[in-house]
Amino acid sequence: MIISKTVLPILLTLIGIISCTSSTVGPMTGGSGSDVEARAACIIGSIVDSAGTPQVNATVRLRPEDYLSGETVSASAGKFKQVNTVTDTAGVFSIDSVDSGKYVIEVLSGDTLGVIIMCEVHPGDTVKNIEQSTVLPMATISGYVDIENSDPSEVTVRLYGLDHVVYPDSNGHFFIRVPYGHYLLAIDADSYTGRHEDSLDVYPGGSYMYERFGSSEPCEDWQCDSLFVGIFLRRLVNSTIPVDSVVVKRDDRVVALNLRGLGAAHVSPMLNNLTALEQLDCGNNQLEDISTLHSLLSQLEVIKLDSNNLTTLPENIGTFEKLKILDISENDLQKLPFSVIGLSLTELDVSGNQLCDLPYDVDQWLTGQVGEYVVSQRCDSLRQDMGKRSLGYRWQD
Question: Model confidence at 211, in pLDDT bands (50, 70, 90)?
Answer without folding.
Answer: low
